[in-house]
Design brief:
This protein is mainly alpha-helical. It has one domain. It has a two-stranded antiparallel ribbon. The longest helix is centred in the N-terminal third of the chain and has 70 residues.
């Protein structure tokens, strides 16, 4: 009987040790090594992104602000394009034409901004054509702190020349 109790205790101790070894193995492999691999992958991705910005940052410089205006101040055009490029089939292979792919994407983005600017110019011209000679009425909603959401609207008269001047300045500054 004593031998049976000893074997049972030994088996129980071995099972407990095996369980602890498995937990340690999980901690080392999944938690420690997994975290290090994830950090290394993130570092490599950030290095590649910095290289990407070095290669295409100058070409994208004129597009960053217009796209922030379209999608919000937090929008990162460069990161978005980089992530899209990485997801492109064939990325990273020897025969992948990264420069050609990016040139095409940049041209497409510029064409989209140009189309928006043309639409804005057409709207401005349409407003100017419908306005009485020398004046354009623009409805401006002015609110002060504490005013209700449906604040009073007041009309300001702006000369056609002034409107054109402001529009041209906005175009030069890249605001449109």
């Amino acid at each position: 009987m004593e031998e049976l109790d000893f074997k049972t205790q030994l088996k129980s101790s071995l099972e407990a040790l095996d369980k602890r070894i498995m937990q340690l193995e999980h901690s080392v492999n999944d938690v420690i090594i997994g975290s290090l691999e994830s950090a290394a992958a993130e570092y490599a991705d950030n290095e590649a992104f910095d290289k990407f910005k070095g290669n295409y940052g100058e070409k994208l410089a004129g597009l960053v602000e217009p796209y922030k205006k379209l999608f919000g101040e937090d929008y990162d055009l460069e990161r978005s394009l980089y992530d899209d490029l990485k997801a492109t089939e064939g990325y990273g292979s020897e025969d992948f034409d990264e420069a050609g792919c990016m040139d095409a994407r940049i041209a497409d983005l510029q064409a989209r901004i140009d189309a928006i600017k043309e639409d804005v110019e057409e709207v401005v011209e349409e407003v100017e054509d419908k306005a009485p000679e020398g004046e354009t009425k623009v409805e401006v909603e002015e609110k002060t702190e504490g005013e209700a959401e449906d604040g009073d609207k007041e009309e300001e008269e702006i000369s056609e020349e002034q409107l054109k001047k402001e529009f041209e300045e906005a175009m030069k500054e890249g605001d449109l």
